[in-house]
User: Which sequence fits this backbone?
């Protein structure tokens, strides 16, 4: 049954990872509904009328303690993460610190100090629960471990967590321009040929505006502590189809070079099970892939002055 909601208007809301792709969209929405928005970044950032910035590293318990004791948030969105599909050894420690240690630090402080709700972002890359979950990357291992800790903090210390497991998010203003959609979009807009892997990977793509809706519901719905919600379109679309749509939207004459790069080993192929997000959060993805890609292309084109 769909739960009732409490508004975040006038609430003190802290967003870790506020400078990131999803964080920026979420902070804008929080500001629009009248929340008092605070963001954490490792870099110094000038505060604006949208949010007040705090400088700190999530991997430092002392930084996080200083910020949490000063801000005293009602609600926290924990988005800070080293987001990377890199399989190499050099990705192990950054993902450990920025994903796992930062989550354990935050939840330890919330267990000590209290807070109404913590929404923790998980990932489609996490291995599915099975007899022996095997992570496909250091990022996946760290995110999965962070989810294990998140559930433990709820069970043992009654930290009011809600998990939001995000599938492949795309949309305007994605920070990492090496990710498929910004890379292909910008290449095509510049008249360059995108160099790609086989394009066969099947992915559950979800528009960033829908993700913000889901995160907001995860923070506002009453009585869902300890639950986890998968937020995706619940449809698989191969990379090659997404590239085809971008080609049609921008320049059908450019032929992307499939097979120029190797496929990554052990790619996750997963569809979001959105049944509980529909039932409990009243959440549905609203934006079709075609519509979301068109909005994304328009945004990047306007950035290039096209
Ligand atoms: N984008 C997707 O498709 C996707 C899919 C599944 C799950 N997710 C999850 O959604 C969340 C947001 O993703 P995103 O795409 O918005 O990522 P993003 O653009 O890479 O932003 C992540 C932000 O985390 C901050 N951060 C990293 N390490 C930190 C640390 N040690 N201490 C404090 N802040 C740190 C960075 O801010 P500063 O550099 O300013 O410190 C960065 O802006 C992540 O938890 C990610 O795992 C994303």
Assistant:
């Amino acid at each position: 049954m769909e739960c009732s909601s409490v508004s975040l208007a006038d609430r003190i809301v802290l967003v870790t990872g506020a400078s990131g792709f999803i964080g920026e969209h979420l902070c804008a929405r929080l500001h629009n509904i009248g929340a008092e928005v605070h963001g954490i970044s490792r870099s110094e950032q000038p505060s604006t009328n949208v949010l007040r910035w705090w400088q700190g590293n999530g991997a430092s318990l002392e930084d996080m303690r200083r910020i949490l004791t000063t801000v005293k948030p009602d609600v926290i969105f924990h988005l800070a993460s080293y987001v990377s599909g890199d399989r190499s050894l050099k990705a192990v420690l950054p993902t450990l610190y920025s994903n796992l240690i930062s989550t354990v630090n935050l939840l330890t402080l919330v267990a000590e100090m209290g807070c109404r709700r913590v929404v923790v972002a998980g990932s489609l890359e996490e291995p599915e629960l099975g007899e022996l979950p095997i992570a496909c990357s250091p990022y996946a291992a760290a995110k999965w471990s962070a989810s294990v800790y998140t559930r433990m903090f709820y069970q043992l210390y009654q930290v009011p967590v809600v998990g939001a497991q995000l599938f492949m998010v795309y949309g305007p203003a994605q920070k990492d321009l090496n990710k498929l959609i910004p890379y292909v979009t910008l290449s095509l807009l510049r008249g360059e040929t995108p160099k790609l892997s086989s394009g066969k990977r099947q992915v559950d793509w979800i528009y960033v505006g829908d993700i913000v809706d889901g995160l907001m519901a995860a923070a506002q719905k009453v009585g869902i502590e300890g639950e986890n919600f998968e937020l995706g379109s619940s449809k698989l679309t191969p990379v090659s189809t997404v590239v085809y749509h971008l080609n049609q939207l921008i320049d059908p004459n450019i032929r992307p070079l499939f097979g120029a790069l190797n496929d990554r080993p052990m790619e996750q192929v997963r569809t979001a099970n959105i049944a509980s997000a529909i039932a409990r959060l009243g959440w549905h993805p609203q934006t079709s892939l075609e519509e979301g890609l068109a909005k994304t292309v328009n945004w990047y084109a306007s950035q290039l002055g096209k």
Observations:
- The chain has a mean pLDDT of 96.
- The CA atoms of residues 199 and 241 lie 8 Å apart.
- The longest strand covers residues 117-123.
